[in-house]
Every structure is written in structure tokens, then in C-alpha cells.
Amino acid sequence: MDAGGARDAFVVGVRALTPDAFAPFGWTPAPEGDERDERQRLAFEWADPHLNYIAHHAGEIERTPEGAVVERLYRHTTHTQALMPVNTDAVLVVAPAETKFTTAADRRALRGFLLHPLDVVVLHRGTWHWGPFPVGAEPVQLLNLQGLRYREDNDSVEPGSAGLDGPVVVPLTSRPRR
Fold first, then answer.
1. Rounded average pLDDT over 101-119
2. DSSP string, 98-129
3. What pairs with residue 144 in β-bridges?
4. 177, part of any domain
5. Residue 5 forms part of a structural domain
6. Are 128 and 73 in contact (CB under 8 A)?
7. Which residues contact 85 (CB under 8 A, 6 or more apart)?
8. What Rg, from alpha-carbon coordinates, does the chain have?
9. Backbone angles phi, psi at 25, to 5 degrees
10. How many domains are there within the chain?
11. Please, which pLDDT band fits residue 113 given cuts at 50, 70 and 90?
12. CB under 8 Å, gap of 24 or more: what pairs does 174-178 form?
């Protein structure tokens, strides 16, 4: 805590999206003929794949001097989910499916990724995720592939709960950490 009694924020760094960096959370599609293209499969346990556009707006998130507050993460255990921003940069925060968010080590499992327009990520089943939310004021339009009945499989967790000090925040930046 700082001298005024406020809780210090836990800041999640934002990194560039690469296949290796994203591998613990899902995958980025590989070109046809690339051996990585043969390893990954979409999964829809309820046989309900659904493709649509969704949007996230800057007004949906609380902003602090350190960045946007990651108030709640979501996950889906019955299906994979693919996301692609189409119009503006966005930040996505993820954590492995087994993360419980009860210890400081669980917070350290969080990773932030900068997504540019047309970057595609596929989340493994159960991967915790926040966003993608826009870096700037313009809403981010997302091509979204997920289970049609996702609302029935939409676990959530507050990463700042369970007595851990301070909120979790992520810088909204177009320049990832190296």
C-alpha cells in the first residue's frame, strides 16, 4: 500500500503477439502447408459453432493512471474461441485455464498481448481472458467465433479478489514491451 492507504496496482505487461508467446493460452493460425497448421483443432463440445461480429468500447472499462482495470476474466470450457480485431489496435489479457486467482503467483500468470487489426488468436478451452479492449477511443470491432450457447458456459473470476492487494491493470498501448 502507498502512504495514503491506497492499494498498489498489479500491472500486467503488454507484449507483442507471437505464436510462441501465445502458445500457453491458445494459438495463432498458421499458413496452409506449415506443419503448425496440422496440430491445432477447434473444439465445440456442444456442436454449436457461431461466427459473428462483436464490439468492445473504451467506456466499458475503468481507466487508472497505470492503465485499464482488469475487473473480470471469462472462460469457456466447452469450446475454443477465435478473435480478430478488424479496425483498431486492442489489448487482450489471458491466463492459463488452471489459474485459480487465489495467490500472487496466479496474478503473475496473467499475460497481456497487443493485437493489431487482422491479428487472429484462438483461445484454448478454459483459457481465462479479458477483452480484447481498444487501445484508444474508437470501439474495437471483433470477428468472433465461439459456441452459440457460450452464456451457459461462461465462468468468470475477479483477478483482484481473494484478499490480494490492489487492482490488476494493463497499460493500453500500441507499443508492446520487448
1. 93
2. T--SSSHHHHHT-EEEEE-TT--EEEPTT-EE
3. 52, 83
4. no
5. no
6. yes
7. 115, 116, 117, 118, 119, 132, 140, 141, 142
8. 16
9. -115, -15
10. 1
11. very high
12. 174/89, 174/114, 174/135, 175/114, 176/14, 176/15, 176/16, 176/113, 176/114, 177/13, 177/14, 177/15, 178/16
Between strands 90-95 and 67-69, the pairing is unpaired
Q: How many residues does the chain have?
A: 178
CA dist., res. 168 & res. 158, Å (int): 9
Which domain, by its residues, includes 99? Answer: 10-170
Kindly list the distances between the CA atom of residue 151 and the CA atoms of 128, 144, 158, in Å, as whole numbers in the listed order. 15, 14, 18
Q: Which run of H or E residues covers position 146?
A: strand 140-147
Whether 1 is covered by a domain: the verdict is no
Lowest mean pLDDT among 3-7, 147-151, 158-162, 172-176: 3-7
Residue 2 falls inside a structural domain = no
Q: What percent of the chain has pLDDT over 70?
A: 92
Q: Give whole-number Cα distances, 122 to 14, 15, 19, 30, in Å.
A: 18, 17, 11, 11
pLDDT, tens digit, 9 for 90 and up, residues 149-164: 888 877 788 887 655 6
Query: Could you give the residue ranges of the DSSP H alpha helices within the chain?
Result: 19-22, 104-108
Q: Quick one: average pLDDT of 113-131?
A: 97
| Residue 111 CB neighbour total at 10 angstroms | 19
- What is the reported pTM? 0.90
Q: What's the CATH number where 155 sits? A: 2.60.120.480
